[in-house]
Amino acid sequence: MAAVLRPLGGLRRANGVRGAHRGATLGPSSWRCIEPRRGFQSAPPQTKVPDFAFAFDIDGVLLRSSTPIPSARSALLHLQSQCIPFILLTNGGGKTEAERIEDLSNKLDIELDTSLLVQSHTPFAELTHLHSKTVLVAGGDGSKCAEVARSYGFENVVTPADILIAHPEVWPFARNFLDYYSSFARPLPPAEPLKVDAIFVYNDPRDWGLDSTILLDLLLSSKGVLGTLSPKNGNATLPNNGYLQDSQPHLYYSNPDLWWASAHPLPRLGQGGFQHSFAGLWDKVTNGAELKHTVIGKPSQATYEFAERRLRARRKTLFGAPGLNNPLRKVYMVGDNPESDIRGSNAYDSPYGSQWRSLLVKTGVFSGIRGDEAPEYARPDALVQNVGEAVKWALRDSGWESKTEKE
Ligand code: G3P
Ligand code: MG
């Protein structure tokens, strides 16, 4: 069964992220690097505008669950002291950017702000054509992902919990958890029956059974109307045997990671695990029909383009006009997962002309000895012990710091 991935066209249309970092509080680190303007005495002059920057993965590079990884804090502080721009580019999510960045600032004991952060679902904010539609948002703890979607501007958000509490028979095996779900579920929209216009998985589903059932119901429905079955399903005279031929809602995933580096010593299944599980269900239920869907997150081109736009905006904030005269030429992507961080950086074709170099650390998902165990497409430009070593390697490679300078 072939899953046809289609680029997230909506991401390319809009220029800036709306809503995702609304109310970003740019702390002192945001102006320390700007040339002092007349009367603007406190900013020291920025002698050199670096033509390079960094993109750091989070899980397995900066943190293992809640525990900072050695050298992470000192590496970021060093870059901040040198006015070298960086962003945090994660396939994680499940909370608003404001909540996540506060969490990261506290755990790493370093000043960060939301303009630095790209989470798996952050680019969904750009799908403004869906903001007024009814969307299902699955995954994450409680109603947190619904809160994230609303913070992006989505006005009519429904969760699997809302559907379960309104129709407990939809997934009979959740009857032992109704107290949990009713603690955060909201009433369904008044219009009956419920019609869903798009399906999003924002973060790792906590109940694969419930979420798979709801996704199947909607993808087999007529026009996204819950509780219906399209009469076209299984009609061999139609394309795709009649499946997904009846204006069913499009399915958007935010993160393809099969594995991720948590507090457990071995990598744990990520949202990609759910996607493969659901693909198996869909294949069996439809006898091999295609599941058209979109997956963003690393290694997708769409997410890397979104991240570079965020990095360029960051640079403009830090340097103002001088930055514009010194174009961004190189980005060092530091990651722990060859299949997402390294593969994405290696494959990324920048529309802005920057070159991305991939650095693989040994503090997360990667468990090999040499970087060449990974398939060619996921082999890093450099294999290093940890993020501190990655930054040192990059500062030498960029010529910013000579080999002799402090090791
Ligand atoms: O759910 C988080 C996981 O998929 C990986 O996160 O930060 O390593 O991209 P990160
Ligand atoms: Mg990682």
TrEMBL record:
<dbReference type="GO" id="GO:0046474">
    <property type="term" value="P:glycerophospholipid biosynthetic process"/>
</dbReference>
<dbReference type="InterPro" id="IPR006357">
    <property type="entry name" value="HAD-SF_hydro_IIA"/>
</dbReference>
<dbReference type="InterPro" id="IPR036412">
    <property type="entry name" value="HAD-like_sf"/>
</dbReference>
<protein>
    <submittedName>
        <fullName>Uncharacterized protein</fullName>
    </submittedName>
</protein>
<dbReference type="InterPro" id="IPR050324">
    <property type="entry name" value="CDP-alcohol_PTase-I"/>
</dbReference>
<dbReference type="Pfam" id="PF13344">
    <property type="entry name" value="Hydrolase_6"/>
</dbReference>
<dbReference type="InterPro" id="IPR023214">
    <property type="entry name" value="HAD_sf"/>
</dbReference>
<dbReference type="GO" id="GO:0005739">
    <property type="term" value="C:mitochondrion"/>
</dbReference>
<dbReference type="Pfam" id="PF13242">
    <property type="entry name" value="Hydrolase_like"/>
</dbReference>
<dbReference type="InterPro" id="IPR006353">
    <property type="entry name" value="HAD-SF_hydro_IIA_CECR5"/>
</dbReference>
